[in-house]
Amino acid sequence: NLLVPKGSRMICRYESAKKVGQTRIGFQCERVLMAESRAEIYQLKAKVGDAQGYGGMSGHVDNRWWEKYGTAVTTVAIGAGVESAVTMASAYGLEGSDTIASALTGISENVGELSAKFMEDTV
Question: Is 107 part of any domain?
Fold first, then answer.
């Protein structure tokens, strides 16, 4: 017996991810629009699963890692670059290196404060 003919449409809603790193998203179907007629099946409340019996649908889930941690990584990289510039300026004994070192140290401290603020906002 054919229960749902080919070409029928299911009206479903998704359930958002509950755990960090989850790779399966749950769906719950509420009704079916039959293809061969104008008939509908209401009040299903059926959970979607795959052929192996696992709940939900698998696939690529965008965890938005760059949105969460991108600014923090960028500011830390800038801070590391400034710190290495301070070290190189003092190692080579550049003329006026005290002025350069103090300026770069000030920049490094400001970058550190900015990265702490970005981390606070994103976490």
Answer: yes
How many domains does one find in the chain?
2
- pLDDT, one tens digit per residue, over 12-43 is 998 877 776 677 888 888 999 988 888 888 88
Domain membership of residue 29 as a residue range: 9-58
Examine the domain organization and report whether 79 and 45 are in the same domain.
no
Return d(Cα 31, Cα 84) in angstroms, integer.
62
Query: DSSP for 45-107?
Result: -EEPB-TTS-BSEES-----HHHHHHHHHHHHHHHHHHHHHHHHHHHTT-TTHHHHHHHHHHH
8 A C-beta contact, residue 55 and residue 49: yes
**CA-CA distance, 25 to 19, in Å (whole number)?**
10
